[in-house]
Amino acid sequence: MISSRCQQYDRPDQARAYSQFRPDPPKELVEVVIGYLEQEVPDPFGLAVDVGCGTGQSTLALASYFRSVLGCDVSKFQIMEAALCRKATNVQYR
After folding, report:
1. Three-state helix/strand/coil letters over 6-61
2. Name one GO biological process term (predicted).
C-alpha cells in the first residue's frame, strides 16, 4: 500500500505527463557519476538500481554503462509508462 502523497503520482495521466515533460538527466551528470564509479568501484558496470525511477529517464541513461539496470518505483503507472517508452534489452522495471 502506498501513502496518499505517493498516490498523486499513481495515475495514468500523471505518469504520461511526467514522462512527457520531465527532462532527461544531463549527459554531463551521467558522465560525472560514471567517472566516480570508475575510480571508486572495482567493477561498476554490473548492476545499477534506480530507486524511485519514475518513468525511467535516469534508468535508461544508465543502460549503456551497465550490463543490467533495474528501475523501481512505487507507482505502477510510472513503471508501466517507463516500460512502454524507455526500453533497452538490459533494463527492467518493477
Report:
1. HHCCCCHHHHHHHHHHCCCCCHHHHHHHHHHHHHHCCCCCCEEEEECCCCCHHHHH
2. methylation
CA distances in angstroms from 94 to 33, 36, 52, listed in the order given: 23, 27, 10
d(CA 23, CA 81) in angstroms, rounded, equals 15
pLDDT digits (tens, 9 = 90+) for 9-32: 689 999 999 999 999 999 999 999
Q: Model-level pTM? A: 0.87
Angstrom distance (rounded) from CA 47 to CA 63: 10
